Amino acid sequence: MVEFEYDGQRRQGIPIMDFPDETIVLGRDGQLHSIRGEEREQLQSITSTYSPATVMEMRSQLQQEFGRGFEVLATQHFLVVQPRGRGEKWAEIFEQSHRSFINYMSRRGIKIRRGRFPMVAIVMPDETAMYAELKRMNVDVKRVAGIYARESNRVITHDGGHLRYIGATLRHEAAHQSAYNYNVHSRVVITPRWVTEGIGQMFEPETMVDTRPGLTPRDRANQDSLAVLRRDYGADFNSGFSEAVRDLVGNDGMFHQSQTIDKAYSVAWAMMFYLAEREPDAYAKVLAGTNARGTYQPYDRFTRLSDFERWVGTDIDQFSTKVAWFLKSL
Question: What is the DSSP string of 120-182?
């Protein structure tokens, strides 16, 4: 274990990676800390054995961090920080999203393993306060209703808008948090974004947290993503769709360009939704394979393409054709 300075307080954690100019420390509250420069020189080894913080410790720490204007609600799986007097609404939303995620994944043979830390959700009073909190965390984003921050292991959103408007984003980010805390992804593994964002897109529709029996893939489809695909690739999904799938599997570049980012999210959704609904064994192989890679191990284009075709049992052109047929059925 080591002690280090964070946010004006002494914290404890365990180093998990040591690079030439950076040490990655896992804090007792589950946060990943990048220690550089002078701060790295001030890391102090201690003789204690690593143990995760208890719920009571984390609750007390969060109350101290956010102050008297906030309250910290404890649920079965979450610690929810929210402005005082907001009731149980947010706690119920996060719990429902998480239970639906676990149920959906378990039914498709995904091996779920509970994380060692309570999941933390931060609800700021309005959008301005949320952006201020993200800035304090050194997270630079614009025009979002909420995010999951992998390093802090927290979802951050706000209570200043219409719940229906931010609901899809919240379910997307909550799916990321559940995936990273229940062994679907690893926070210290480089996972292709088509895998992580494809899952996030899958859980945006409200029907994904609907417990009514008899829902079909058409009911669970992300209609916004489907509309983007039909707009860009036509009703038959022929022109350019296979090339987009190949690009996404090979690298994350489509997610980094403003003119292709909508396509990237939508094609990622189509790939993961198809696998989950029609080929759950291959879906499980993709998730297990990407999760089992080495810590921060680089993932080059050739290896990504080779792994993908091995996991799905066919080449990318044939896979794209099957996805297109599935999309037309929706």
Answer: EEEEESSHHHHHHHHHHTT----S-SEEEETTTTEEEEESSS-HHHHHHHHHHHHHHHHHHHT
Determine the Cα–Cα distance for residues 113 and 220; give it in Å rounded to an integer: 25
pTM of the model: 0.94
User: Count of alpha carbons within 13 Å of 261, Cβ hemisphere only?
Assistant: 4
* CB-CB contact of 221 with 273 (8 Å): yes
DSSP one-letter code for 266: H
**Among 151, 189, 174, 30, which residue's Cα sits nearest to residue 90?**
174
User: Residue holding tokens 């192989």?
Assistant: 285
Residue 179: CB partners within 8 Å, gap ≥ 6? 101, 185, 196, 199
CB-CB contact of 14 with 2 (8 Å): yes
Per residue in 253-276, pLDDT tens? 999 999 999 999 999 999 999 999
DSSP 87: T
The answer to whether 180 touches 191, Cβ cutoff 8 Å, is no
Q: Which of residues 143 and 107 earns the better pLDDT score?
A: 107
| Contact (Cβ atoms closer than 8 angstroms) between residue 328 and residue 241 | no
Burial class (CB in 10 A: 0-12, 13-18, 19+), 323: buried
How do residues 193-241 score in pLDDT, each as one tens digit? 999 999 999 999 999 988 777 889 999 999 999 999 999 999 888 779 9
| CB 13, CB 33: distance < 8 Å | yes
Residues pairing with 19 in the sheet:
22
Phi, psi of 155 (to 5 degrees): -95, 135
Q: 294 CB contacts (<8 Å, ≥6 apart)?
A: 189
Q: Is 144 helix (H, G, I), strand (E, B) or coil?
A: coil
- Is the distance from CB of 299 to CB of 190 less than 8 angstroms? yes
Kindly report the average pLDDT of the chain as a whole number: 93
Nearby residues of 299 by Cβ (< 8 Å), 6 or more positions away: 190, 192, 293
166: Cβ contacts below 8 Å, ≥ 6 apart: 145, 146, 157, 158
